[in-house]
Amino acid sequence: MRIFTLTAVLFLSAFNINAQNSCLDALLITAGLRDVDSIDGPEVPLPVCSTGGDNATAGEWFKYVPDATYLVTVSSNIIENAGADTRFQVYSGDCENLQCIGGDDDSGTGFLSIGNFTAIVGNTYYIAWDNNWDSNGFVFSIAEEIFVVPAVVFSNLPIAVEGSSICVVDMNGDFLDDVVGVQNSNINLHLQLPEGGFEVQNQETQQAAYLPSWSIAAGDIDRNGYNDLLYGGGSGVSFMLRNNDGAGFTQVYQTQYVFSQRSNFVDINNDGHLDAFVCHDVQPNVYYINDGEGNLTFNQGGMGDTFDGGNYGSIWVDYDNDGDSDMFIAKCRGGNSPANINQLHRNNGDGSYTEIATEAGLADAVQTWSSAWGDFDNNGFMDVIVGASSFSQGAHKFMYNNGDGTFSDKTLNSGYDLLNATSIEYVAQDFDNDGFIDVLGAGNSIMFNNGDLTFTRTQTGFGNGPIGDLNNDGFLDVVNGTTVKVNGGNNNNYLKINILGTVSNINGIGARVVLYSALGKQIRDVRSGDGFRYMSSLNVHFGLGQDSEIDSLIVTWPSGIVDAFYSPEINTTFLAVEGDGEELPGIPNSVNDANKIELLVYPNPASDEIFITSNSPLDNAIIRIFDVNGKLISAQRLTQSTVNISALAKGAYVLQLTTNDSVTERRFVKQ
Amino acid sequence: MNLRLLTSVLLCTLMIACTRDDDPTPTPPPTPPATLVVFDPTLVPYQTLSEYNFYKGELMNMEPQDDVLPYDLITPLFTDYAKKKRFVWFKAGSSASYELDSEIFNFDDGAVIIKNFYYDNVQPKGVQRIMETRLLYKLNGAWNFAEYVWNDEQTEAHLDMDGSYRNISWLQDGELKATNYRFPSEAECLTCHKTSSKPMPIGPKPQNMNKLFAFNDGVKNQLAKWAEMGYLTGNIPADISTVAAWDDELQPLELRVRAYLDVNCGSCHKENSHCDYRPMRFAWIETINPQNQGVCVEPDETLDPTFTHIISPGNVNRSMMYYRISSTDEAVRMPLLGRSIVHEEAVQLITDYINSITEPC
After folding, report:
1. How confident is the model at residue B342 (pLDDT cuts 50, 70, 90)?
2. How far apart are CA A298 and CA A276, in angstroms?
3. How do residues B239-261 score in pLDDT, each as one tens digit?
4. What ipTM score was computed for the predicted complex, to two decimals?
5. Cα–Cα distance between A216 and A212 in angstroms, integer?
6. Residues of B in contact with A130 (CB under 8 A)
7. Are A435 and A378 in contact (CB under 8 A)?
8. Which residue from A378, B1, B20, B117 has the least number of CB within 10 angstroms?
9. Cis omega (within 30 of 0) for bond into B360
10. Closest to B306 (Cβ–Cβ): which among A53, A83, A283?
11. Neighbours of A380 (CB within 10 A)
12. Under an 8 A CB cutoff, do B276 and A334 touch?
């Protein structure tokens, strides 16, 4: 470690070495202190790697070549600079092609700057100060520390997204995450290429009736192989449906007033068609039921009916492991309104939902706009970080799923009790691939999960944005405006899964994916719409730590079909197709794509009778009921829409419905 | 300038005159004539504005019946430069009483507050166009909303509680402006107009109305006129903490800013209101404390680390308030509702104010 002392400062200052005025003239410097007389060099440091915009008109350039690999700290956070307002950028590359490595605006006292970067031995780095705020002279230091490998390091990759870059999802059917920019009448696509990099496409749209100012969601609601988009606007909702040939979008919207907040695509009534849900800020929530024929029917009521809203972050999650998606709503409202009490809507399996946050222990008053759901200790149940947007009515809470429908407060000593920053965004993902889900949100940090119900805050210098793997390296990246925060990764292993539903919705949204390896059991729910505003990848990502093999991957689809995939290869992307896996003992999963019909069997669980509905004629269909061992229990002709099951013993069954040209199965539970 | 001075002097004189409680012979309120306004509590809201008969003659002239009293606010809410004509009407025997300088009058049942939104010099014809008329009326102790959207012929306004849009362009001081004008839905009305989730007017507070107004029978203080009409009963203090006119350059900058913040931001950002979980407190009586204005207060929501404070002394580019009032992005702009274009003159006011604060955080 070589940190310069004040003596060194004074000594070096005496030389009064001036910086140079352009990149090519950059002055070679080493660790120590430097004076800058004033910022007046004609070459403006670009691109801007730090925050603060692009108002600079001049720069001062330095060059630094480390003699070993160091963590280098550049700082104007020095007492004699008090009152100054500085900013610097750090680049690698050459002067014709500068690459952002780091930089800082205001991390120091007042408006002074301090920031670090990893300097690899032998490389050349450019440190350039600009006059974005003022041109006055100041002193800065360069200090070198022995490089300690952090969990992961993010670097900046500029990406020229036009419009708001709020969505990272596959847009051309190749499962690779793309970056989507939304403008009034254009969608700016940065399509990830298999060989790396992006191809830019612009697809003109109709003038958006409502822009995604508050949130965006993606899902293929018409099953044409291309994801469609939902724009959650301040007074209504627009759908941009991707045309069947992938060329262009068709806008569909209705004029009901919706003050949109979080939006999701999810199969609310489990009929195999993706529906849309939108949190309403000032009224009961709204949802659009998809009949599979291209019609989206607006509904309001029954899914969080607080009359004056307060609905900010709807996260769909199977909290009770019963195979269907429940919905948590992060809520916020001032003025002593009960609209700020968080809600948990349990899916009853029959298309209805019951609000049970109080029983679950999640009816918190903390003002939250989104909450991070994930299984933080890999015990097979989804926990939640209820992330505060304001500390006015309580701080962050780590609520641990007891596995019996209730949650316990494990905030104390979790690291969240010490997090003094707030955010409207909290999203759970494994950013260091260690097999434990971390949380991005608040204080420009990632809360890295230590695996023991505690988290360690690591400041990354960036906040939330859409998350995906934008260089297909198995490590999750984050988009912030026109910069990809590229996750540099580490030597941990991973598995990515592309999901393809056949009976269920084509994105497999709502599927529960379970991965078994030496680390134990990890779970994910496929989710469209996480956090508050952004749309992140629909691909499922698991970190594996140092595990070098995977025992199995079990996918439970919204249809009830369960697929087991054994020993998928690590550090690859695995395609999980509904019905393509092996059967788990006792759970048939056979799917014959050509001979399936849409079939809804409810309630589930059921006690006396079950109802069967379909959009295909069911007259004279044969109903067979099998137990979990595949043994036929009963067979009958369907003469009405109900089947009496009162004689069945309690347990799980498979109902098989055979028409003239189809055979379709559904699981149900007799209770 | 001189006129403003004169007005101020008149205002002072009048306030002293009309609130002197030692006046030996107070004038009894005149017996109100039978009203021509139609307001059947069992039938409202009517489907059309004309059914209320608030106005004499042609509806679009907005010429009030004798007991429909015009009033004005010292500093109004900005709504895309729309002009406003405000009226109040009470059914016979109803009135309002003083609560606090900073609180809405305590209105009886049967009070109706009428607010017309219109533009002059609307393109292409350069004529006036009335956009909407909003009613707040009180029945059974509760306020109710009724939103009337004017037709293109300007002959009628129809009840519409669902919200809609209309494109409009007009000349604003010679400059062409345009907006996709938003007619609020009932939920939008409530979002701003509420206290503890219950509907509530915002404007008619003593602090906002304590000024002169040119009534048909002469220039009078509005509070005095209300009292004279029998619309305001009980004692009114002589000394009312009154907001500044935001555009009165004779007033201290800070008072103008505080007035603007109160009317435009304070209904959400004050104690016990929609957004009281954020640190700002923008009500007139609360902004005496600069911290409540957001001076040197860090934002909860870091849209960009550049914005270090709600108000960063001397530095608009680091002030979240400046950023939000300058934005039209509906997820960034403030106020959230009621504005879709930038109030340039207010941005200048806030800029001047931020630049005038010199003491660093």
Report:
1. very high
2. 9
3. 999 999 999 999 999 999 999 99
4. 0.85
5. 6
6. none
7. yes
8. B1
9. no
10. A53
11. 14
12. yes
